[in-house]
Amino acid sequence: MKVHSKQRGFSLVEAMVATVVSAIALLSLGVGQVKSLQYASSSLDYTLSLIQANNAVEQSWANLCELQNGTLTLEDLNVAPQTDKYFIEFPNGFNVDDFEILVTWSDERMTDNLANSAGLQVKLPRVCS
Prior knowledge:
- By secondary structure, the chain is an alpha+beta fold.
- The chain contains three helices and three strands.
């Protein structure tokens, strides 16, 4: 009597290959999650910098007559308060009617050379003589 044995289950090689493929897939998912969090943080920085730039514009707008008449200066308003993370500047100087606000920050976690800055070009009407 001849007994034929059938193979049941997986061999060790098959199990090791499946383990390696699963490990690579899980590591790839982990890297994707980390990058996603980094980009979300960068997006938050961009949004906060735009809020600060808009705040500077609003403070200028609220005191536009005094700025245009020269009775008030930009330094008096402190429209560009510096924080630990964000640096606000006027790259072309401050002209009351037409100016640019540039907000920059640094994020050492981002390694893809994104421009860590946001800028606004502002043109205000001449309302006071």
